[in-house]
Amino acid sequence: MNRMTITVNKEKCTGCRICQIVCSIEKEKRIIPKLARISLISLLREARHEPRICRHCPDAPCAAVCPSEALQLGEKDLLSFDQDKCTQCELCIDACRYGVLRIDNNNGSPLVCDGCEGSFPCIENCPTGAIVIEN
Amino acid sequence: MANRYKSRILHINLNSGEANTEVIDESTTRMFLGGKGLGSFILYRELGKYGKSIDPFNPDNLIIISAGPLTGNWLPGSAKYAIVTKSPLTGTFLDTLAGGFFGAEVRLAGYDAIAIKGRTDRLSYLFIDDHRVELRNASSLKGMFCNETQDAIIDEIGDPDVRIASIGPAGENLVKFACITIDYNRHTGRGGAGAVMGSKNLKAIAVRGSCGIKIYDIAAYKKVAMEAYAAVRSSPGYEALCTTGTTTGIGTYSEVGTFPTRNHYTGVFEGSQKINEGVLKYIKTHQSCYACNERCGIYRVIDEGRYISQGIGPEYETIALLGSNCGIDSIEAISKANALTSEYGIDTISTGSVVAFAMECFERGIIGTKETGGIDLRFGNADALIDIIHLIAQRKGIGQLLAEGTKRFSEHLGPETEPFAMHVKGLDLPGYEVRSLWALALGYATSDRGACHMRASTADDEIAGKWGDRLSPETYADGKGLVIKQRQDEMAWKNSICICKFIALTSQHIVNVLSALTGWDFTVEELEMVGERVYNLTRCFNVREGFTRRDDTLPARCFNEPLPDGPPKGLKLEHQQFEKMLDGYYDVRGWDRNGVPKKNTLERLSLKNLLINFR
């Protein structure tokens, strides 16, 4: 079975933040783009935008460095995160090769994308194809 | 499920630095919703406390940033918010709306509106970080362009995602049509809100929010939101807006004779085809507003030649006013002028109008090179336009007079210039020549902030013949009062709930979204009632400020000079027909023949108790 591939076409991103909005509704049950598991580097002055989304890498370097097994690559090739096991060491932040992981300032733990069981509403709702998934 | 929605207003007094939060009860929140409605409710109440009309530059005037229940949500077109104040250009109520990201951030910080009064001793900026409100020294930002200002504040705060509304040099210099530039490329353009900020010594407002926006019924909301995106995506105008933004169809307006040209002398511009081709050039990318799939922000880069510029725009209105209305057909020059007005922070519509007025005065010999400082201010001279923009924003030379706006500049020059001073109540006519668009003419005349195409958008429907043959003046006036009332009320509720006018959603759809978000059992009828209520409230504000039927009119050119060419050649507004339309409009509104809302109208709209000091 082929593994999913997530790609980012930043030239297509118009900076609307729909990906972050739907992520926050899914994960936080309210609209709060800052706590989205997908981040956006946005330069409004130059109209340049770059979404940063978790690729659920097969070798999962973030999970590899996690000392407490809070971060793991699960059965569906998706990352999973156990808040109770997290020691807030922040090693995962530096390990991410796409610069995706951020700390939630409210609890000191990383904001981890679990792919919403593979449904990826962030990708599903992107209006321009700036983020795409291929299975 | 969360608690039901109530408006939260952050009040800030710049005199003392004090800040406190007011929560509006649920039934009043439902009556005004937000945006224009909530802003007009606050402005009417607060300025009523003084028992007399106050000067717009009096520290007691307010700058109200007013978002709505839809602002910041997962919905196309939900980036909108209003800035409400008493206008220094017109002396009327003023609401001016923009998109971008700032309004969403205000709501993410936990507020629906921020009402700012008073004045600081030195140039300052506000940093609103959720519940923390800080007044910071902005001395180092004095004289800075809007973009530089926003860069400097982002550097100082150390967060690229802080959202900023700022004024440029024009606002600091109290140019009467200074705008507020937001998120670098968006503007609350009309009526001089930027000058009111300048009068308060307030250079910028920076907002950062981490409270989030609550949703009453998430399951219901997800369903209606996804339907909304699908509806917008399949709407007829979607592809065009995503490709050429608001500049779609420029050539058409000239063909049908409604493209304002050389200070509204005609509606036909010989350079329109050149502009039409020009707008397709230099497009680098598209930028959305918050949560919108209809990416109508066209980012252009012109990096060679005589006129180098970059940024979003120029939009349709800008092209009509800085372009054809000044006799200019170069998209490069118009883009340069657009970028300059954005940097200085001035409204492109009023800038184009006052420059066109000055150009006509120059060509008629009323002013000469002595007054212009050597500038050859003829129609079509793009370099002159750009030179004059610098002078206006800096209030230098003849710019000192133009910075007062068309009405005051004309009064300064003398009554012979009044017939071609193209404004209503001091606000300049936008990008549609109305001698063959009589419904829109009535809309301009009765708009609550002066001549405005956004308070009753009828141009495209009139051109399409929706309400009869616009070229048959004998019959065309009939029924236009009702048309304009309905359109004004529709825009009033859209500007209160805060949804962009370019979003093709039905009223029922919007009501479904609102109900899922707030927990209210809202109806389309209630929504329309909000629009009518808000329009009556802003009318009451203007009546209290002394405006009467005499002010609900148009420049003499529209009545006295038949259009010289194009399909509507020979058409002009007829006094008798216009007064008939105005009577009809007042009648359907429930206003007396002097344009004052009747007692039973205010009762029907549940406004009577709120307006204790009205008449």
Summarize the structure.
The complex is a heterodimer of chains A (135) and B (615). Chain A has 135 residues and is of the alpha+beta class.
Give a written overview of the molecule:
The complex is a heterodimer of chains A (135) and B (615). With 135 residues, chain A is an alpha+beta fold. Chain A has helices spanning 18-28, 61-65, 91-95, 121-124, and strands spanning 5-8, 39-43, 48-52, 71-73, 79-81, 131-134. A two-stranded antiparallel ribbon of chain A has the order 1-6. Chain A has a two-stranded antiparallel ribbon with strand order 2-3. Chain B is α+β, with helices and mostly antiparallel strands and 615 residues long. Helix content of chain B is 40%, strand content 13%. In chain B, a hairpin with a 2-residue loop joins strand 16 (423-424) and strand 17. Chains A and B meet through helix 1 and strand 2 of A and helix 4, helix 7 and strand 13 of B.
Q: Main sheet of chain A, how many strands, which sense, barrel?
A: 2 strands, antiparallel
The averaged pLDDT of chain A comes out at: 95
* Helix percentage of chain B: 40-55%
The main sheet of chain B comes to: 6 strands, mixed
Number of helices of chain B: 26
Rough shape of chain A?
A: globular
The N- to C-terminal Cα distance of chain B equals 44 Å
Q: For the terminal residues of chain A, how far apart are their CA atoms?
A: 9 Å
Shape of chain B: globular
Global Rg of chain A: 14 Å
Coarse structural class of chain B: alpha+beta
Beta-strand content bin of chain B: 5-15%
Class per helix and strand makeup of chain A:
alpha+beta
- The SSE order of chain A reads EHEEHEEHHE
Tell me how many strands of chain B there are. Answer: 17
β content of chain A, as a range?
15-25%
Spatial sequence of strands, sheet with the most strands of chain B: 2-1-6-3-4-5
